[in-house]
Every structure is written in C-alpha cells, then in structure tokens.
Amino acid sequence: MSQNIILSQVFEKINDYLKKDTLIDYKAPFELHDAINFSIAEKGVGEHEFLELIDKYLDYSVNTNHPQFLNQLYSGFNFPAFIGEIFTALANTSMYTYEVAPVATLIETEMIQLMNSYTGYKNGDGIFVSGGSNANLVAMFSARNQIAPESRHKGYDKNLKLRAFVNEHAHYSFANAANIIGIGTESLIKIKTDENGRMIPKELEQKIIASKKRGETPFFVGVTCATTLFGAYDPIDEIAEICQKYNVWLHADGSFGGSIILSSQHRYLLKGIEKTNSFAWNPHKLMNIPLICSALLVKTKGTLHHNIADVDADYLFHDLNLVEDLGKKSIQCGRRVDAVKLWFAWKYFGTAGYEKRIDNLMHLAELAEKIVIKRTKLELLTPRQSFTVCFRYLPEVDTDINHFNLLLREELRKTGKTLVNYGYINNILTLRLVITNGEMSPKDIALFFDNLLETALILEKNYSIEPIEKR
Ligand SMILES: Cc1ncc(COP(=O)(O)O)c(C=O)c1O
After folding, report:
1. Residues 28 and 167 reside in one and the same domain
2. pLDDT tens for residues 256-285?
3. Order of strands across the sheet that contains 419-425
4. 84-134: per-residue pLDDT in tens?
5. Pocket test for ligand 1, best of 166, 255, 436 (most atoms within 8 A of CB)
6. Which among 328, 281, 249, 311 is positioned nearest to 119, based on CA atoms?
7. Which atom belonging to ligand 1 lies closest to the Cα atom of 133?
8. Which of 225, 228, 286, 288 to mutate to test the pocket of ligand 1 (most atoms within 8 A of CB)?
9. CB of 131 closer than 6 A to ligand 1?
10. Given this model, what pLDDT does residue 465 score?
11. Are residues 166 and 251 in the same domain?
12. Which of 296, 322, 345 is the endpoint of a domain?
C-alpha cells in the first residue's frame, strides 16, 4: 500500500465529505453489519479495500458538521481546529513533559492563562482534561482532598460524612464523581430550582444548615453554567456568598455554557465566576473544537499539584527544563494534546471572532424561541435563558402528546431531515432545540421548523398510537 497515493485520495475524501449535504443515512445495527465487515482478519486489507472502508465509515456516520445536527451540545465543523487536530496526530505526543511536547506544553500553558484572564482567577492554574465529566470529577476530588488532605494517603474517612450539593438538574457526572471519590451518590444533595431551572440560593443554604445539624460536613457546591436540558445558569454570585460563609468549595460546571464568558454582552450570566474555586470549560461544545477539548481551571496555583497529583516519578519527570511539566498536575499519565486545536482556532478567529460566534448562537436561539411562541401548534415549555429552546408540538389528533412528539422526533431522525434531542420535564416530553454550531444562520433555524411542521402534518394524517418501533 503506498502511503503517498493513499494520502492524496484521503484528502479528496475529506473535501467530498465537507461538501456532503446528507445529515444521516440511517441504518439499523443489523443493516450496518451487512454493509461493513467489522471483523479483523489475519491478513491485512489492500489499498482498495482500505479506501473503501473510509467511504463506508463516512457514509454511515452521523454528519455532525451538518447545520441540521441539533441533537447534542457539540456540533459543527471548525476548519482551523480540524487542521490543528490533524497535525496534533501527525506530531503524536503526550502532554506529560516538556521533553516530549515542548511546543504543546507552551501552547497549553498559554491557553490556560488566556482562559483564566476571562475567569478572573488572578493566581489561577488549570489543566486540560478528557471532558467536562472528568473536569467535574477532578474538581470534586480536589475539594475532598483540600478539606481532608489525609484522604490522599489514608483513604477517605467516612466519619467525616462529606456532602456535596448541586442543582437538581445538574449533569449526571456529579453523581459519578461522588461515587468515584468514595463519598457515594447518596451524599450528593440535589437543590431545588426556580421556574427557570436555576438553583435557589435559599434552598441551598437551608440544606447546608440542615446537613451541618446532622453532623455532616458540606464540602462542595457545584453550580451549573447552562444545564444540560434547559440551558439554565445558576446564580453564582449569591451562591458564592453562601459558600464563603460555610467554607465550602464552589465549583462552576461550564461544560456546556462556560464559553459564554467570551461574550461581553452575555457574560453577566456568569456574574461572580471569579469567586468560584474551580471552573469546567469545554471548548468542544460552544467553541466547536473537535472532541475532546476540555479544561479544568482552578483559582489558586498549586491546588492541582497538591490536591490531586502529588507524584514522585523520577523515571518520567526529570525537571531538566525551565518550565513545569504539566503531567504533574494531571490524574492522567499519557494525555492527548487537546490544547493545540483550540490554539489554532483561537489564533484564526481571534478573541473578537469568537465573541461574535457566541453572540450569533444566542441570537439564533432567541430567534428560535420567537418562532415557537408565534406558532400556535408549538408550545414553549420553559422560558429560554440561553442556547436551548424547550418546546413541543401540539397535535390536533386526540392522543398522548408525549407519544406524538417522540414519533415526530424519530421520523425526523430516520428520514435524515433533522436530528433534535428530547428529555422530560415532570413527565412532559420536551424537544430540546440547542444551538451550538457557530456556522449556523437564520436560514437553518427556519429549515428546522419547516422540517418539523411538515413532518408533523404528515404524521397527523396517518397517525396511529403504535409503540415506537425500535430498530
Ligand atoms: C452541564 C454539563 N456538564 C457536564 C457535561 C459533560 O461533559 P462531557 O460530555 O464533556 O463529559 C455535560 C455534557 O453535555 C453538560 O451538559
């Protein structure tokens, strides 16, 4: 197999893929098994088959670059970041030492400093991690070891009865984190929210007081900056006061909505962010960097080193250079180079360009909300705060509205028109339109609603309350 010939054909395929207008060529798992030979044989494949496999992979993958991919909190194609990703793989290395990753080490350091210039952590630090869930885990772990440093060596003393507090709609990674750090999921206390899905500070304070009265130790509050389903921003400023009063670590989960910090117009939603102890920021969501690109920022230098990775590994860290080896602050040993694609993108768009992209997302979400309010057959289910519009279709046929909306969503998915996700608000199924692709325009929003309304009308005509077919 000639590497040169293959490379030129691969670049052609990349070009073709980027022009492709298909969102998804839906195949059930058994159909995919028919279309692709997944097994590995003793003898390797030849050039022709190798190239064919690339085609098949691309043909049947979901085209998340497509402007009708509205299903997840990441989406879109980011050209400079894509280039960054390719060259990162080409100069394959691991982020632990300056010795093997000199340029990438300085780039990651620069990115952390830049991100901290937005958070207002004047003596801050941070590390790129393998996703927002892991950022939340490392933050909670760090908070545990701050309040109970002996846990690092002796393990967690259950008599401390550590308790963590989060928005009732917080991401499930907090429950996983509570499990992993040894306090258990029952030690994660969910705090009630208001009609906008924001944590109610008074409720939090009452729960902290009650916890202390039971002889427990509140040690961690996780606020969310754009909740997964509603896009709600917790009131950080008020909650920070409570955390200071009770000496509790305050973490802000900006995995979804943290990038709003780039917008001077909308940054007010993070008011008080500089008072938090840590902040999870995922450029792979609203900044459209290819997965994974995620950072955990901390307010105080030394925190990560002391609380989570106090390692002694002289076979790796030789301290021969004038800069810090970043691996000393990470729970990982081998670590992907995720800062470089972000750096390429930020260089390309500039800070002003990125601000515009975030403002555009918010503008499009506003537009989508207006359309929902205007159309009598659509019902807005929660007030919109940011990039998410939660709504449903009101069918004229007499039926279970949840079932109808689920069917509608499945029809849109399987016909490949639009991919939009859903969740439940008190047993009411809500379609969650989420605007995260910085390249989108008002035309794409209009097309989304055209697709949805057109498909709903057809469904109404042929409607029957059959169970949704699983394929
Ligand atoms: C609020 C929130 N926190 C955390 C996460 C997890 O982030 P990741 O998918 O990068 O692990 C998500 C993912 O959607 C999220 O919405």
Report:
1. no
2. 999 999 999 999 999 999 999 999 999 999
3. 69-70, 419-425, 428-434, 388-393, 378-380
4. 999 999 999 999 999 999 999 999 999 999 999 999 999 999 999 999 999
5. 255
6. 281
7. 11
8. 228
9. yes
10. 66
11. yes
12. 345
Residue 132 CB less than 6 A away from ligand 1: yes
pLDDT in tens, 173-203: 999 999 999 999 999 999 999 999 999 999 9
Q: Could you tell me if 342 and 88 are in contact, meaning their C-beta atoms sit under 8 angstroms apart?
A: no
Residues 141 and 7 in one domain: no
Does 369 map to a domain?
no
Domain count for the chain, please give it. 2
Buried/exposed 60-97: b ≥16 CB within 10 Å, e otherwise: eebbbbbbbbbbebbbbbbebbbebbeebeeeebbbbb
For residue 406, pLDDT over 80 is answered with: yes
Tell me: do 334 and 244 sit in the same domain. Answer: yes
| Ligand 1 atom at shortest distance from the alpha carbon of 226 | 1
Residue ending a domain, choose from 345, 380, 398: 345
Same structural domain for residues 154 and 298? yes
Token couple for 128: 């790129």
Q: Quick one: 47 and 123 in the same domain?
A: no
**Are residues 12 and 112 both part of a single domain?**
no
Q: Is 193 in the pocket of ligand 1 (CB under 6 A)?
A: no
Q: Is 388 in the pocket of ligand 1 (CB under 6 A)?
A: no
Q: Distance from the CA of 78 to the center of ligand 1, in angstroms?
A: 20
Ligand 1 near 256 CB (within 6 A) = yes
- CB distance 208 to 165 below 8 Å: yes
**Is the shortest distance between the CB of 75 and ligand 1 below 6 Å?**
no
| One domain, residues 164 and 241 | yes
Ligand 1 pocket check for 294: Cβ under 6 Å: yes
Q: For residue range 18-59, what is the model confidence (pLDDT) as tens digits? A: 999 999 998 999 999 999 999 999 999 999 999 999 999 999
| Domain that includes residue 11, residue range | 3-63
